[in-house]
Amino acid sequence: MLGERTLVMGVLNVTPDSFSDQGLYRDAAAAIDRARQMEAEGADIIDLGGESTRPGSERVTAEEELRRVIPVLRGLRGQVKVPISIDTYKPDVARAAIEAGASLINYVAMGPTPSMIGVARELGVPLIIMHMRGTPEVMHKLPPLPDPSAQVAADLTQLRDLALQAGMSAGNVWLDPGFGFGKNGDENYELLAGLDRLHSLGCPLVVGTSRKSFIGRTLGTSANDRTWGTAATVTAAILAGAHVVRVHDVAAMVQVARVADQILAHAHHAKMAPGEGMCPQ
């Protein structure tokens, strides 16, 4: 499935302090219903998270995180056919979630990376490694990056190499440049414009721009009113070769992805030899 077309990963936060849904799905029954709805809307993966990592968010214990996500995973058994990823930076949570039914790990690189790689390798599941500068407490206060694409590429190379040296296959190491995570304002646009530079790392690329604050600053809108801005960034990411897009508005972004995939598939028809098609002098 990976590589045939852009995969759409639907965000399902079961936290009380998510920046995008303000705890709408913290109840297990509501989260299960939303997961089923996302599958019906065309989601290829459902990304389940039990702890917010937005700027300024507070940390929770592994026990509390598991209390939030395990009932949802158990309730989804037999309810959805698409794979479920567990969005966590804690190896113990990742292990328990995989054992409860998740089939890949979405790892914000702010925890013990070698331990998380070990869990993914042992259990034989893909590991999404997301780039992050700093921590949620300080990442929005960091100094600017002179070349965001170069820095992210260098950091992701180190993280990729850790995983490969530990015995993971390149196909099971997915890389996420981490839009908004320690990248401020226009740095996110620079990173998106230079996304194709990350193909040299040789791993599938996951892009999560959905409803991010840099879109809101451009449009002057709240988190729940950034669908069209998100659509623009999703299109740009797909045309730059993203393999997976992580989104909140699944139904809308499935349509965006399918059209962007068609543009990409037909792009070779628009290429011209030097001088071909130019207006006569």
Describe the 3D structure.
The chain is an alpha/beta fold. It has one domain: Alpha-Beta Barrel (TIM Barrel). It is built from 9 helices and 8 strands. The protein has an 8-stranded parallel beta sheet with strand order 6-5-4-3-2-1-8-7. Strand 5 (127-130), helix 5 (148-165) and strand 6 form a beta-alpha-beta unit. Helix 2 runs parallel beside helix 3 (91-100) and helix 3 packs parallel to helix 4 (113-123). The longest helix is centred in the middle third of the chain and has 18 residues, at 148-165. The radius of gyration is 19 Å and the shape is globular. The termini are far apart.
Total beta strands: 8
Described by the principal axes of the CA atoms, the overall outline is globular
CATH topology: TIM Barrel
Strand percentage lies at 5-15%
Q: Main sheet: which strands, in order across?
A: 6-5-4-3-2-1-8-7
Q: What do we call the CATH homologous superfamily?
A: Dihydropteroate synthase-like
Mean of all residue-level pLDDT scores: 90
Q: Percent range for helical residues?
A: 25-40%
Largest sheet: 8 strands, parallel
Number of domains: 1
Q: What string gives the helices and strands in order?
A: EHEHEHEHEHEHEHHEH
CATH domain class name: Alpha Beta
* Unreliable runs: 271-281
- Radius of gyration (CA) equals 19 Å
Decide which structural class fits the backbone: alpha/beta
